[in-house]
Amino acid sequence: MMLADGAVQRPDGKLDLFGAGWDVLAANSFPHVQGSFDVALRLVVPADEVQADHVFELIVQGPDGEEAARTRTEMVHQAPEDEAEVPIEQKLGMTFNFRGVVFPVAGPYQLVMVMDENEIHSVEFAVLQAPSA
After folding, report:
1. Contact 31, 107 (CB under 8 A)
2. Exposed (0-12), middle (13-18) or buried (19+): which is 60, by Cβ within 10 Å?
3. Partners of 70 in the beta sheet?
4. pLDDT tens-digit series, residues 70-104
5. Model pTM score
6. Cis peptide before 131, with omega less than 30 degrees from 0?
7. CB neighbour burial string for 9-28, b if at least 16 within 10 angstroms, e if fewer
8. Spatial CB neighbours of 78, under 8 Å, sequence gap ≥ 6
9. CATH topology for the 2-129 domain
10. Are 11 and 4 contacting, i.e. CB atoms less than 8 angstroms apart?
């Protein structure tokens, strides 16, 4: 999972990223409203899960564990054309877009990836007071 200034998923499944790989956000004051940021990730869906529908949520949690933002997407399985076809794992590129997230205080934050109501991964980042000029 990677934080970025921008992330776009192309029709061919590739991800285009810019300003990617940061883990610290500097804010002039608090509460801080971040205009936008994106999260890109590559997820492997095991073969035994490919033929099921899934709900993915990405949650921004604050220093006290409170939810600052949440976004979600759904993966609806496609029935194979040939019923005898054996499912294989799928590698999915995904992007999640956040707009206007309010960070109430400086401190450690966490991105929590949830699949079907089960936490599957998390990444920490920090929102810090920017140095005064």
Report:
1. no
2. buried
3. 59
4. 999 988 776 666 666 777 888 888 999 999 999 99
5. 0.85
6. no
7. eeeeeebebeebeeeebebe
8. none
9. Immunoglobulin-like (2.60.40)
10. no
